[in-house]
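tool_log.txt
---
The assistant was asked to compare two proteins side by side. It first ran the structure predictor on the initial sequence, then on the second. Raw inputs and outputs are pasted verbatim so the downstream comparison step can read them without reformatting.
(1)
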Amino acid sequence: MVNRRFVIVMLTATLAACKSDPPPPKPEPKVEAPKPVEKKIAQRRSSEQCVGPFTQEPTKTVKIGAREWELKGSTLTEKTTDPDDTMVVGVIADLKEDLPDNLANIDKFLAHFKQEKVELIVVNGDTGETKAQIANNLKRVAASGVPVGIIIGNRECQADFNQAVAEVSEKAQNVFNLNFVRRIVADDAEFLTMPGYYNASYLHCVQGCQYYDEDVAALTPLVELAKHPLTVISHGPPRQASPNALDRISEGTNEGDPSLAKFLAEQKIPFGIFANIHEAGGKATDLSGENLIKEGTLVESLYVNPGPGDSLRWTMNSGAESVGMAAVVTYKGKQASYKVFRLSPQVAKKK
């Protein structure tokens, strides 16, 4: 027989034990760690009137001599083909004022280009201080009748430059503003443009054209589209590291753009056309600037500075004197060569 007292005691003890146990703790709400705040760095980009955007419109067809070109937004493409793999390009830079002697230099350059059967002329910056000077110099070059691409340097004001080029190209359809035409796809060569200058302290005009690292980086997607080995056209040279370099100034330092040099190296751009450093002109080097390339030699890597085109006497780093220089660059397959056309300094006649 069950002891009723024993059962009551056990039930009482059990109830007492249940009352003494604390309730299970409620789970604490999960608190997510704060997300790191991303710093937004302003992307520096030059004015579109200086470094034009990459566009696909508008489209128009341009007939220049016996050849047909299509201008589609920021890309100029040669539609006429030929059976060879060669293209000859004339390069003029630093024409400056439209003085009689400078205009005479242009005429001599054009006569030489005609003899060399140049198919395209690049006017690589510093074409004048004013709208009138730029227009007068450019009209002279446009008379060549071949395609002419002109790019802004560190001397011109944006508005003066663009207005002058627009006025000339309205009458001469062979003239193209390389601030806006950023890619040229010719039959046997291809070009990308980097207008302006990277260092604002070198600009002659408050409203000049400064480009930034981001503008250089924006060229990268176009490299993948290339059908031929690429040439970058820019008024200022890349940063090099030698007395032989295209950016070596008379004071003994190298003043080119480090960002442009990095882009050329990383993207393996084989060719370049530069100017601005007058005393370092009239020659070509490899990308490092250490190794000079002999004129007339076909190589797979060629960076050219044609030298100053104006008639003002310049003492070059070599010790030679310039009163006007230009260059002819010849592309053949995956190689290129160059030759410099030097005007002879006039010697005063003795009385």
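(2)
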Amino acid sequence: MSDTLPPRFDVTRTDIERVVTLFYKRIRSHPTLGPVFAQSIPNTSEAWVPHEAKIANFWANAILYERSYSGNPMAVHMSKPHVHTDHFPIWLDLFETSLRDTLRPDQADSFNALARRIGRGLQMGLTFQRAAPDRPPNLI
């Protein structure tokens, strides 16, 4: 009996890496998200190569159940005051476009559903963490 779980859906590590590479290429030139990312990641290959590898490890962990990622995405995003909740819909749409330009439709659909679920969780976490303590939360 194996302790290895089957992938969440049909993608390979190479597929994930191709998506991540294309997505971050687009991020760097995006008029809204490019400047946001530039505040955390300098526009050099020395900075982007390890970031892309870390994010590929995150997705490989989430989809392929690899144990190659350790980190706390919620804490990282919460620690960045320049990351706002209104960035997430833009991020998710750009990620979906990268998925659709890289993968088969069935793969893109599955990956997109997972990315949107994770993105909603991060967005909600930022909303609650940054809410004024004397006001009700904005649930939109």
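---
observation on (2): The CA atoms of residues 47 and 53 lie 11 Å apart. The two ends are 45 Å apart (CA to CA).
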